């Protein structure tokens, strides 16, 4: 009995000694387990599946790097990759647009709450709704776009039916809610801007663009980092707007890698799970490269301080 009592006392004292360090990990454990099971494990599973030819039901056949070799000669893959690059370049316009809208809304003027609500509205509605709204906006028969073009003497155009304009048209639709998201990030960041630095800048004669570029923007680095990462991920994994507005058309001209992955794995292309996984791996590596670059840039900036 005495030995058992000593053991319990030791265990109790060990818990009391380490309770402060262990408690946060106990709270984090469920989230970490979910992250490992639903994010990390599927990533490795996709890498493994990309080495097989599998229809989702039958026996998987190991084919090594054949799926990647086929990707190398696949014109549809290069079309999707090109569209992803266009998405990436144009989608980044949401960041400066969100910043300037946030600067406008970060004022005390009459009706500012109404303006904030109007700019915030696109963020809370579904991407499917955004896609439907812009599909009607671009409609060649009754769409508002052609009404506006006619008002200034320009000929009508079928944006979603034109191979040269369809990707740009979908990106414009995606910029609407993404700009609202970046605006929210910057509004939050502007609330944390040090007023003493602004006052010191005014005393030194800084105003307008100089005030913005040298004093305000450097203090918004955390918000800018999050905006870049989220916008890049959103551009590379764009799917729902394409599915709603064009379903990859016309003639596959608006495909991106995520939509092409869905087509080859789960659509009319024949349930090629391995080939779809190979596309997913390529998309994941592109995302990883961009995010690693921004993380490394942030790390170097912090080390330089």
From TrEMBL:
Species lineage: Bacteria, Pseudomonadati, Pseudomonadota, Alphaproteobacteria, Hyphomicrobiales
UniProt keyword annotations, A-Z: Cell membrane, Membrane, Transmembrane, Transmembrane helix, Transport
Protein name: Sugar ABC transporter permease
Transmembrane spans: 25-44, 85-106, 118-138, 165-190, 211-236, 275-296
Cellular compartment(s): Cell membrane
Protein family: Belongs to the binding-protein-dependent transport system permease family.
Positions of the ABC transmembrane type-1 domain: 80-296
Family annotation (CDD domains): TM_PBP2
InterPro entries: ABC_transporter_permease, MetI-like, MetI-like_sf
Topology relative to the membrane: Multi-pass membrane protein
